[in-house]
Design a protein that fits this description.
With 455 residues, this protein is an alpha/beta fold. It has 13 helices and 22 strands. Strands 1, 2, 3, 4, 5, 6 and 17 form a 7-stranded mixed beta sheet that branches. The chain has a 5-stranded parallel beta sheet with strand order 8-15-9-10-11.
Length: 455
């Protein structure tokens, strides 16, 4: 029997980062992974998709260099070679994790884990007794009627990354984050893309102004967006699919990406045997430290249903390790930044304008368009704006939303301000280098008080 201080089920960003932190804090740590080290994010999610996003941006840049007086007569894209390079990058990152595991004496068991009791696991025929266990098993795509993922015509995001050729046409079912990111990537690489979304708008959880602008910009790129629309029929042909909608549309596509939700990877864990309680949707119930209903067992990341982002899983894992060691810290979910790799990028933190009005009542909003930002004009990327939402009576920053160049980087300034409990007046008291995109944060903050210089 293997005896360990901490057993971690899953090696995605939540699992492997938590393992390294735990080992550095002196805990004997064992990681159990049934698939590839690094989990979905490294192998089939965050990292390969962002590599393709970078590829799409490079192709876009080549199409637009004539605006700078540069002539490019022609170029070709060897997509199979590009995919191979992407896979090499993933392999390099995986080897890096292996190196860290070896350096910190973290044991890795390549097998599926199942609870025998609250402190005991079985994995690959081995028995494991752990003082504490962290479940970081993640989530997986869900099939939704009338679609059944077949890995040939009807694909998950994981399947889409395995393609060696760019499909001539791609139907994307679901206008959420994953769907919108792939829509830009494959549109830029040459696919005719159609997005079908059942809700009244794409990116429905984002701030309304952000959703409206990205819709308009995508349609300018030739991406067709059908909202408040359901797929009612799927007919598979040798050349692809014919989709029919409840609004009378007929969509012909070589491939279809189904991106309408995920399900927690709890199957096979025998959570009942460990007395770990799940909610009505199958997510594991946890308290503010990530602790489950079973003593000594924690759940982090997608599987607890709180905030399905890789960096949140990693943060939750560190909080769980601290709690195991007797230190109580909590994660401020209202200060979590996230990026959506659309074109242009989206960065967000905290409440939308609608949510802020519901919470605070009277709010003040500052906006600044990138069309008035010197650096954006220099770079030729002026679509979008920065938006800061504050409580009118206290000046508390309630949310920030950026759509525009490098939005995914800029949003961290606002997240740090929120987590540090700074006010809108503190944002504008800072000095920002010129000419930079960061000045949009200054001017959006100033606009809260009607003081922005360039609007």
């Amino acid at each position: 029997m293997i005896q360990t201080d901490l057993a971690i089920i899953g090696s995605g960003p939540g699992g492997y980062i938590t393992a390294i932190r735990a080992a550095k804090m002196g805990l004997d740590t064992t990681v159990i992974e049934k698939d590839k080290l690094g989990g979905v994010c490294l192998n089939w999610g965050c990292m390969p998709t962002k590599w393709l996003y970078h590829l799409a941006q490079e192709v876009d840049s080549l199409k637009k260099v004539s605006d700078m007086g540069i002539t490019v007569d022609s170029f070709t894209l060897d997509y199979a070679a590009a995919v191979k390079k992407m896979q090499n990058m993933v392999g390099k990152l995986s080897r890096s994790i292996q190196h860290h595991f070896k350096t910190h004496n973290i044991k890795l068991i390549k097998a599926e884990a199942s609870f025998d009791s609250q402190a005991r696991l079985t994995a690959g025929g081995q028995k494991i007794k752990a003082k504490n266990i962290i479940i970081a098993a993640g989530s997986s795509p869900a099939s939704v009627a009338p679609f059944e993922l077949d890995q040939k015509y009807i694909l998950s995001n994981r399947d889409l990354l395995q393609l060696k050729e760019i499909p001539s046409s791609l139907a994307i079912i679901g206008g959420g984050i994953v769907g919108m990111e792939f829509a830009y990537i494959f549109s830029a690489l040459g696919s005719q893309v159609t997005i079908v979304e059942v809700l009244p708008s794409i990116l429905g959880s984002e701030d309304r102004e952000v959703s409206e602008l990205i819709t308009a910009l995508y349609e300018e790129k030739g991406i067709k967006i059908l909202t408040s629309t359901n797929i009612k029929g799927v007919d598979i042909k040798k050349s692809g699919l014919i989709l029919t909608t409840d609004k009378g549309h007929t969509i012909e596509a070589e491939k279809a990406l189904v991106s309408v939700g995920r399900k927690p990877n709890t199957e096979g864990l025998n959570l009942d045997g460990a007395k770990v309680r799940q909610d009505s949707k199958g997510y594991i119930e946890v308290d503010r430290f990530g602790a489950t209903t079973a003593p000594g067992i924690y759940a982090i990341g997608d599987i607890n249903g709180k905030y399905p982002l890789a960096h949140v899983a990693a943060a939750e894992g560190k909080i769980a390790v601290d709690h195991i060691l007797g230190v109580e810290k909590i994660l401020n979910y209202q200060a979590v930044p996230y990026a959506i790799f659309t074109s242009p990028q989206i960065g967000a933190m905290g409440l939308t304008e609608k949510q802020a009005q519901q919470k605070a009542g009277e709010i003040k909003v500052g906006r600044f368009p990138f069309t008035h930002n010197g650096r954006a004009l220099i770079d030729g990327h002026t679509a979008g704006f920065t938006k800061v939402i504050t409580d009118a009576s206290t000046g508390e920053i309630l949310g920030a939303h950026i759509i525009g160049p490098d939005a995914g980087e800029l949003i961290h300034v606002m997240a740090l301000a929120k987590s540090s409990e700074l006010l809108a007046e503190d944002i504008i008291a800072n000095i920002y280098a010129h000419p930079t995109l960061s000045e949009s944060l200054l001017e959006a903050g100033e606009d809260v008080f009607g003081l922005a210089t360039h609007i």
